[in-house]
Design brief:
Elements: E1 2-4, E2 7-8, E3 11-12, E4 20-25, E5 30-36, H1 40-57, H2 62-91, H3 95-112, H4 115-118, E6 123-128, E7 131-139, E8 142-146, H5 154-165, E9 169-173, H6 180-191, E10 199-201, H7 206-214, E11 218-224, H8 227-239, E12 243-247, E13 252-256, H9 262-274, E14 284-290, H10 292-307, H11 329-345, E15 348-351, E16 370-373, H12 380-383, E17 390-396, H13 399-408, E18 411-412, E19 414-418, H14 422-431, E20 436-439, E21 455-456, E22 459-460, H15 467-473, E23 475-483
Parallel strand pairs: 1-5, 8-9, 8-11, 9-10, 11-12, 13-14, 13-19, 14-17, 16-17, 19-20
Antiparallel strand pairs: 2-3, 4-5, 6-7, 7-23, 12-22, 15-16, 18-21
Helix pairs in contact: 2-3, 2-6, 3-5, 9-10
Bound molecules: nicotinamide-adenine-dinucleotide.
Length: 500
């Protein structure tokens, strides 16, 4: 079994802590690694290493920092199969999906490689008479990233490439469920020429997170995970005077208008609801059908499509399954519990994924695709994030009712509308209270040069991940006003200077 530790000052540390966590392969239920959970000495080493590295890294030319990013990109491309296998082994998603996650992470590295341009700042000649003004975007200091299990590569890569390229140093605390991909990324950054201490990975749980966000050497905290933890981290980090962006959970609705191409909408729904076993913050978990006729057509086609869905070990290639297991035995129990709740609440269970057994993987954490119809707003299976392969059909009478439903949900991460009607789609994108909207696009994850983030209780803090917001989050703006008057022009002024 693998023994995983931490990556501090450009080296893997010795096993040290008395506390360890177990890492499982969700497809087989076998433990594949043991991970050291950082104690205070390890945490201190990471903080010292990141603080010491900041002085010189923040003064390194952005062009040289960008060159490290270019090399890092090449190294990831060379080693992407190894990285994808690690993701699949410890998360469970199918290999092609793990490859997709790596590509979406790489796009942020590509964005961060343009950092000399992104940090140019602004300049005004003669902002006042004989007075010039320019702004500088300076690195903030030591940044901390706390990331969830569901994207062990992509979500950390929403954060650290931009942060490091901006001149900060970074401490990543990955999910304790699948910590190895982050350690692998750290090694690639070292090989790309990143100086000691600029990027560190420290494994641990709640105790480690508390120490990091309360430490005076940490200036900024980026978090992605469930809403209760996101909210708590945001409050604590803010109380300690740190800037914080904390992205939380989701319940994403897809509105299907009567004029939508049903075949297209159902194909989109299948991937968006059951891909990665529904463990995506942008997964569609609610299909909002306008009118009973639309709902019946969608349901009939979904039923057929679900029958052909292949479920198995994500590492299998002959053929590759469509969907793997859930991440842990506890999470499987939780999802099974929600299915039971849905039945008790009176929703119609059209397809029940609870009895699934995958040959040779009987102890894996599999739950089959599950479909509920006639789900209503009052039900817990509608209100809460299930984070599993469970899709709910909600029937509404028109677009007004669909908008009212989506807008009254506590989460506002992503949403989609499927329609051929430009007017309806235009109205939806303008009036919906959700951060990321797809028009005939089921999972509208913005590209790295745009910003990723939801609304309402799907985010705490004003700045999203990557894109221009990422650069803003990881830099402090300083504005310099300068003038070079002759001594004879210099007089004492006691009122506010204005430009007449
Ligand atoms: P989680 O909230 O349990 O854990 C996220 C991180 O927080 C992990 O590193 C974990 O170790 C740490 N953590 C857990 N409990 C903590 C505590 N009490 N104090 C401090 N730190 C703590 O989330 P998860 O189960 O790993 O991930 C799934 C969740 O993440 C889902 O809710 C999903 O919607 C959300 N998510 C959101 C986005 C987004 O962009 N909005 C993206 C991916 C995942």
């Amino acid at each position: 079994m693998k023994q995983l530790t931490h990556f501090i000052n450009n080296q893997i540390t010795e096993a040290h802590s008395l506390r360890v966590g177990a890492v499982f392969n969700p497809a087989t239920g076998e433990q594949v690694a043991e991970v050291d959970l950082a104690d205070s000495a390890v945490t201190e080493d990471a903080l010292v290493s990141a603080s010491n590295a900041f002085t010189s890294w923040s003064k390194t030319s952005p062009l040289l920092r960008a060159r490290v990013m270019f090399k890092f990109k090449v190294l990831i491309e060379e080693h992407r199969d190894t990285l994808a296998k690690l993701i699949t082994e410890q998360h469970g998603k199918v290999l092609s999906d793990a490859q997709g996650e790596i590509t979406r992470g790489l796009e942020v590295v590509e964005f961060a490689s343009g950092i000399p341009h992104l940090l140019k700042g602004e300049h005004s000649l003669n902002a006042g008479s004989g007075v010039d003004s320019h702004s500088m975007m300076q690195a903030v200091g030591v940044c901390v990233g706390i990331t969830p299990f569901n994207f062990p590569v992509m979500v950390p890569m929403w954060m650290f490439p931009v942060s490091i390229a901006c001149g900060n140093t970074f401490i990543l605390k990955p999910s304790e469920k699948n910590p190895e991909p982050a350690l692998f990324l750290a090694e690639l950054l070292r090989r790309a020429g990143l100086p000691d201490g600029v990027f560190n990975v420290v494994n641990g749980d709640k105790t480690l997170v508390e120490s990091l966000i309360s430490d005076s050497r940490v200036e900024a905290v980026s978090f992605v995970g469930s809403t209760p933890i996101a909210e708590a981290i945001y409050s604590k980090a803010s109380a300690y005077g740190k800037r914080c962006q904390a992205l939380g959970g989701a319940k994403n609705h897809m509105v299907i208008m009567p004029d939508a191409e049903v075949e297209q909408a159902v194909n989109a729904l299948m991937g968006a609801a059951y891909g990665s076993a529904g463990e995506r913050c942008m997964a569609i978990s609610v299909a909002v059908c306008i009118g009973d006729e639309t709902a019946d057509r969608v349901k009939t086609k979904l039923l057929k499509a679900i029958e052909t869905l292949k479920i198995g070990n994500g590492a299998d290639q002959m053929p590759e399954p469509d969907m793997g297991p859930l991440v842990s035995a506890e999470h499987k129990d939780r999802v099974m519990g929600y299915i039971e709740t849905g039945v008790a609440e009176g929703a119609e269970l059209v397809v029940d994924g609870r009895d699934l057994s995958v040959v040779d993987h009987e102890v894996g954490y599999f739950v089959g695709p599950t479909l509920f119809d006639h789900v209503t707003k009052e039900m817990k299976i509608y209100q809460e994030e299930i984070f599993g392969p469970v899709l709910a059909i909600v029937r509404v009478k028109d677009l007004d009712a669909a908008l009212a439903l989506v807008n009254s949900h506590e989460f506002g991460n992503g949403t989609a509308i499927f329609t051929q009607n430009g007017r309806a789609s235009r109205r939806y994108q303008e009036e919906v209270k959700v951060g990321m909207v797809g028009i005939n696009v089921p999972i509208p994850v913005p590209m790295s040069f745009h910003c990723f983030g939801g609304w309402k209780r799907s985010i705490f803090g004003p700045l999203n991940m990557h894109g221009p917001d990422g650069v803003r989050f990881y830099t402090k703006m300083k504005t310099v006003t300068s003038r070079w008057p002759k001594t004879t022009d210099s007089i004492a002024e006691f009122s506010m200077p204005t430009l007449e």
